Amino acid sequence: MIEQEIRTPAPRTGDRERRRTRMLAVGGGIFIALILLRLITGESDITSSGTMGATLALAVPIGMAALGGMWSERSGVVNIGLEGMMTFGTWGAAFASYFSGNPWLGLLGGIVAGAVGGLLHAVATVTFGVDHIVSGVALNILAPGVTRYLSDLLFTDEKGGGATQSPPLPSFPTWSVPGVGKPLGSLEKHHWILISDLAGLVRGVLTNLSPITLLGILLVPVSYYLLWHTAFGLRLRSCGENPVAAESLGVKVYRMKYSAVVISGALAGIGGVFLAMVASSNYQEGQVNGRGYIGLAAMIFGNWRPGMVAGGAGLFGYTDALQLRGGAGAVHAMLLLIGIGLLALAVWRGYRRRVVAAAVSAVVGAGVLVWFFLTDALPREIVTYSPHITTLLVLAFAAQRLRMPAADGMRYRRGGGH
Amino acid sequence: MSTTEPAVELHGITKRFPGVVANHDIDIEVAAGTVHAIVGENGAGKSTLMKILYGMQRPDEGTIKVDGVEVALHSPSDAIARGIGMVHQHFMLADNLSVLENVVLGAERLHGIGGKARRRIEEISHQYGLGVEPDRLVEQLGVGARQRVEILKVLYRGAKILILDEPTAVLVPQEVEELFGNLRDLKREGLTVIFISHKLDEVLSVADTITVIRRGTTVDTVRPGDVTARQLAELMVGSELPVPELRESTVTDVPVLTMDGVTVRDATGRAVVDDVSLTIHEGEILGIAGVEGNGQAELVEAIMGMLPLAAGVVRLGDTDLTGMATRRRREAGIGFIPEDRHRHGLLLESPLWENRILGHQTRPPNVKGGLIDRQGARNDTERIVRDYDVRTPNIDVTAASLSGGNQQKLIVGREMSGDPKLLIAAHPTRGVDVGAQSAIWDHLRHARAEGLAVLLISADLDELIGMSDTLRVILRGRLVGEADPATITPDQLGSLMTGAGEESAA
Ligand SMILES: Nc1ncnc2c1ncn2[C@@H]1O[C@H](COP(=O)(O)OP(=O)(O)OP(=O)(O)O)[C@@H](O)[C@H]1O
Ligand SMILES: [Mg+2]
Q1: Which residues form the ABC transporter domain (chain B) (predicted)?
Q2: Which of A293, A348, B24, B445 could form an SS bridge with B216, CB 3.0 to 4.6 Å?
């Protein structure tokens, strides 16, 4: 939006409670909207357990990248190298699990490889003061080269392996919450309003889970706890907000930044493990395919806060799942929702006296609705790219009151205080 | 106190920066359990010396002894470990963290980061009358409240040696009184306080010993009983103590700024500026008196277009400013001296001449034919440096390397350039020495005679009364009274500001 930033004076209390209820309300609201959409358009894939399961699977790697980005940026280091760190993760997972035959060692391998990527980034940006973007891009260019070379060296002689892929890897056991799958499955088939939708959601989320998915979900509250409720987290965040002040209070800024960026790499590495060992059965070149960047978008959408970041990853996972499973019809149905959503946003902005923003939302919203009513399906090209288009739209419209860490991306020199 | 060793001994301290010697062969002894004031003109090297004692900068030569033991301070953690705490001249706070988080940062071992720490903060805040609310975001606080958070930060750590670098520059007299009461208590408990200020009356009333620094070296150490403020000023800058005063009235009846029913609401819908109407005429300085946090900051930001209006109109001359972007407002002829120079006034990491362009990036002498005119900007920066006596080796150093008072002079010089019609001045002489203060007042008087209208906000009531043609009092976002600067005393104004004399307002 080309609009001057005008801030509203903040309320007297930054209320955690209120934020939580608002998040629940937004989540519930979206779910109900989806149900209505299913009823109106008859696209049952909108809330089916299959879509929900796929959402989760597609959201996990994006979510890990996003969470990793959040850790790094909270300490003030922009991490555009997530893509490369994930690539390291996919390869590390393949290497460790294939040669040991143990999937759990694969997980460890992915984490270590990702963390090494993070360490490289930290050395460049923190110790040598290289521009964060430059270092990140360099890492993204470096990663495919290094993994190609190593695969060539280690995988070409193995059965099923080659310079661009690893042999088939051992897989993780999957797990379902006992006694949930069958009864919910039958409920879902009835297509009862709300009940079937809810059954689809719960069944999709609770059955056939891989341990990496569970780990990924668990890491969201864990990150929140570590960053907001421990001394370590406070110190880390202070480095992203005002490193000079942090240093003046005895915080070891370099050390905190190093930890954050290495953790960031490890998280991206877990995303890589998921791609190589859960979403597919072997490492392949180019497997990451931009998810590191989408993760960054999810992080921005999530306003650098874990709950919202996870929500952002869920959104991208969902659009991706929908286009894969429901195809053109389901994505087309989404236009209705987007159109109405934008119009609602326009009304809200009008109410807040933000005329330009309101007008833009109204015009785009109306355009989307017209598009919906005049067509029956979307061109295939657009369907395939709907997750990316969502990324763009979401960043352009929802990203109005984002607050990134104040010293994010700035070069920091020890003793450079004023 | 049982110990007879001085708490701090600095011997032969020398510190050089490219192009300047900030400290040169400094010798200071601070006796334990005393308040030791350090005074000196802007750029004399006071802050640098204190940063050396706090481990933020390394001296090139010299030794530091704490409690009789020679120490090497490599980082603030070393100083903290020896019981030294510092309130910096410029805030060292993270805006997006809560007050609680800012206070406990680095001292989590003491009381954790949760409920226990919150109780402790409330306790200290209560004990010293600081009125700090632990759960607010620092971003929402005004300069006075930030200053109190900074003070609380040091108290929370239980430091034995306190360094206070201009802690009172933005506090109103009542708050200063309170702080001094606390300092005396601390002293009684055996703490040592090193105190920097440009307000010489304050220094004389609170200090046990005063050291004067001039051009980076100690020139004299005196006892407050032996000198007057005037003699102290002469020791410091070799000039007389200036008095803020306006001679004849230059007020005309041409309105420059007109505000009508202006209301600003915060996100909860509370009116932080409530139905404010006022007019400033050509050649008039209108002072707003008020305890900080009563809407002054929001009022200023509303005029500058940094906050949206919930109701009302703002006009500059005949132009309606409502809905206009900040840059357009500045182009229309508004100069702005912000209350917090680091937050709004400067790009610390940029050279002075780039800072000259800031906020004037569309106007000559910075622009020629739509492009930035480097040479023009540089020449004009040289002019500001000359006219406003900004002490700097050259105009290519970063703004961060200027001393606090010199940064302020640069901003004042910049905002007075380009013949503004209206100047919004929040604490215009914050942190500048007595010599420079009188120079800034001269510039203001001169511009006023040429027809400049000024909205003046200051915690220094003498300045406010002396420099205003008209005085309005703001309380909880509303203009509650008017006072005649010719007759009112600082005490009377102080009680008007707290609402005590609301009905007696003339
Ligand atoms: N980081 C730095 N780099 C270069 N020069 C510096 C730096 N810090 C301070 N100086 C210079 O050292 C001198 C002393 O500065 P200092 O901040 O100690 O002055 P001060 O006595 O605190 O003045 P004020 O009253 O204005 O705060 C000034 O000439 C300043 O320009
Ligand atoms: Mg100073």
Answers
A1: 8-240, 257-501
A2: B24
Residue from B50, B80, B92, B150 whose CB has the most chain A CBs within 10 Å, to mutate: B92
Tens-digit pLDDT profile for residues B279-299: 999 999 999 998 888 888 899
Residue A237 sits at φ, ψ, to 5 deg, of -65, -35
Cα B45 to middle of ligand 1, angstroms: 6
**Cβ(B493)–Cβ(B463) under 8 Å?**
no
Of B39, B152, B58, B176, nearest to B102 (Cα)? B152
Please check whether residue B66 lies inside any domain of the structure: yes
Measured CA to CA, the distance from residue B506 to residue B486 in angstroms comes to 13
Asked if B203 and B152 sit in the same domain, the reply is yes
- Given B237, B263, B282, which residue is the final one in a domain? B237
Q: Are residues B220 and B179 in the same domain?
A: yes
Q: Give the A-side interface with B, CB within 8 Å.
A: 4, 6-14, 229-231, 234-235, 237-238, 241-242, 244-252, 353, 403, 405-406, 414-415, 417-418
Averaged confidence pLDDT in chain B: 87
| Chain B residues touching A13 at Cβ < 8 A | 135-136
Residue B378 belongs to some domain of the structure: yes
Say how many residues make up chain B.
506
What pTM value is reported for the model? Answer: 0.83
Mean pLDDT (whole number) for A194-211: 78
Residues B143 and B204 in one domain: yes
Domains and CATH numbers, chain A: 43-174+209-327 (1.10.3470.10)
Cβ–Cβ under 8 Å, residues B406 and B433: no
Chain length of chain A: 418
- Residue A15: pLDDT over 70: no
**Per the structure, how many domains does chain B have?**
2
